[in-house]
Specification:
Layout lengths: L3 H10 L5 H18 L17 H4 L7 E3 L22 E4 L6 E5 L2 H17 L2 E3 L16 H21 L3 H14 L6 H20 L10 H6 L3 H4 L1 H8 L4 H16 L5 E6 L7 H10 L8 E8 L3 H17 L4 E7 L17 E8 L9 H14 L3 E7 L8 H22 L5 H19 L12 H10 L2 E4 L3 H11 L8 E6 L2 E6 L2 E11 L1
Parallel strand pairs: 5-6, 5-8, 6-7, 8-9
Antiparallel strand pairs: 1-4, 2-3, 9-13, 10-13, 11-12, 12-13
Helix pairs in contact: 4-5, 4-15, 5-6, 5-7, 6-7, 7-15, 7-16, 10-16, 11-12, 11-18, 15-16
């Protein structure tokens, strides 16, 4: 595993960076589709009452029946089991207090219905145009007018994405022009999501047609991307006060760390990405209160590449807090603009220290910098920590195929927009700021390829395979961790939408059945 070729091959096999490996195949697929000159979304998404007809946007035949080709990549829309939970919707009572008249659907459910309708349109060789007005018959009769319009808007977006994947940019622009008319960054969650995804598709078209010149990101740019939360600090704090996931990540990590060093007199915590560091005040307090096997000294070492002053201030705050508890504590910063220069010698590990590593939302930023990812894991292995706690975005946003990546990101971000809808008012400035932040991520994921695409995530199963290659094994998070996580959820008004599911030995943190984050613990054999 010391050979860099191993990690290169692994990353290619498990979807870390595969653009070059599949580029030739992808070009051949596009060539074949162009030769067939058949497009599955020709009439997909026609509005139910004929307000907007997608076939009017496509200058095609006036025949009643038009040949279709099922776009295989969009079959992802048909079967996405990780997002199947809680799909019945919320029943809404009419304004006069009558019986339930329809089900209010989440943004993710809207996207699923739009996808299923899109696939139904494209799965038949010949489709009668008249049937497009009500493709599901009574299945859609229970939807509210707003939900129907949202499904249709999402279909237009999918049609645009299909045209972009086929490099039919003029046709894609026609669909995007309709998205711009119907979507809004101040509307409901579906309208907001479509607004930002349409922007991303437009930028992708501009890049591929030479209207927008590519920017080659430096390593500093890539590392800066992991600090996006700092640029929207107040808004993210506002969100964390409404949604329990950050607290669950923090306290699960703290509990797992305390359990792993229960008999260690000295503790050395290495944090790969400290952010505000507020969670470590809770760790310090818990360690100071430990009666059995009291801790003689705790040291936190932080690796920082961007904002040294901020981390210095964090360290002083933690030292002040520890002093107020009369708890022996020290704080060290390893400032490395180039993380590829990291070695185990930077950490000054003592023989009697129990070493634990915390990596929350850090490793995904290294996916686009594979040499740094390799360096970090080699150092971790040489440090031989008693435990490594990892929290990551639970989404596969790194497919080398544009269509796959578009669909996965559409489901994931739709759930994020739906979450904001439930916990913040539509005109809340923090919400608007957060959505601008999400929009930046969407543009990078959807609108870029290669070195420009720096925002990447893979799911827990990929990380499992990755860690096992380094001789690591998964440690089951304790029942105490699970109890605390569920206790935190109950303190929030949105508790009915949040869940902590046990997956192997790890936790999945989900919103209405859509996983947002995973937390796992690891040790070496």
């Amino acid at each position: 595993m010391e050979d860099s070729t191993d990690i290169q091959n692994f990353c290619t096999n498990y979807g870390f960076y595969q653009e070059y490996a599949v580029n030739q195949q992808f070009q051949e697929m596009n060539k074949q589709q162009e030769e067939m000159n058949v497009h599955a979304a020709h009439y997909a998404g026609q509005l139910n009452r004929g307000k907007i007809k997608l076939n009017d946007l496509e200058r095609g035949s006036d025949m009643d029946e038009v040949p279709f080709l099922s776009p295989a990549p969009f079959e992802l829309l048909r079967n996405n089991p990780r997002r199947r939970k809680n799909t019945e919707g919320v029943k809404v009572r009419d304004v006069n207090g009558g019986a339930n008249v329809h089900q209010k659907l989440s943004a993710t459910q809207i996207m699923r219905l739009a996808g299923e309708r899109f696939i139904q349109f494209s799965s038949n060789k010949f489709i009668n145009i008249n049937n497009l007005l009500h493709p599901y018959g009574s299945a859609f009769s229970d939807l509210s007018p707003e939900d129907n319009q949202d499904v249709e808007l999402a279909q237009i977006l999918l049609a645009a994405a299909e045209k972009v994947s086929d490099q039919q940019y003029d046709r894609a622009r026609k669909f995007l022009s309709q998205c711009q008319l119907l979507a809004s960054n101040t509307g409901n969650p579906v309208q907001r999501a479509v607004f930002y995804f349409a922007q991303a598709l437009g930028e992708r078209i501009d890049r591929e047609t030479g209207k927008l010149m590519p920017k080659i990101c430096t390593e500093t740019d890539e590392l800066n991307s992991i600090c996006v939360a700092s640029r929207f600090h107040a808004s993210y704090i506002a969100l964390h006060q409404e949604v329990p996931f950050t607290q669950i990540v923090h306290f699960t990590g703290i509990q797992a760390i305390l359990e792993s060093v229960a008999t260690k007199p000295k503790v050395h915590l290495i944090d790969f990405l400290i952010r505000t560091g507020v969670q470590w005040a809770s760790l310090i307090q818990a360690a100071a209160e430990r009666k059995d096997n009291p801790i003689e000294h705790m040291k936190i070492t932080v690796i920082e590449s961007v904002n040294k002053e901020r981390v210095i201030a964090t360290g002083k705050s933690l030292e002040s807090f520890a002093n107020s508890l009369n708890f022996p504590f020290s704080f060290k910063i390893i400032f490395l603009p180039d993380r590829n220069q990291l070695t185990e010698d930077h950490f000054d590990i003592k023989p009697d220290e129990g070493v634990v590593i915390h990596a929350a939302f850090f490793l995904r930023a290294m996916i686009c910098v594979p040499n740094c990812l390799e360096t970090a894991m080699r150092v971790v292995r040489r440090l031989q920590p008693s435990l490594m706690v990892v929290s990551e975005v639970e989404a596969n946003l790194n497919s080398p195929l544009f269509v796959n990546r578009f669909i996965d990101s559409l489901f994931y971000y739709s759930a994020l927009f739906d979450c904001l809808e439930d916990v913040m008012k539509r005109d809340d400035q923090h919400r608007m700021t957060l959505e601008v932040s999400y929009g930046g991520g969407i543009r990078n994921i959807v609108g870029n390829e290669g070195e420009e695409r720096v925002i990447r995530s893979v799911n827990l199963d990929v990380w499992r395979s990755f860690f096992r290659r380094f001789g690591m094994e998964e440690v089951k998070l304790s029942n105490t961790c699970l109890y605390q996580a569920n206790l935190i959820i109950q303190q929030f008004a949105c508790r009915s939408s949040c869940s902590v599911d046990v997956n192997g030995g790890s936790f999945m943190l989900s919103w209405k059945g859509t996983p947002f984050y995973s937390t796992s613990a690891w040790k070496f054999h």
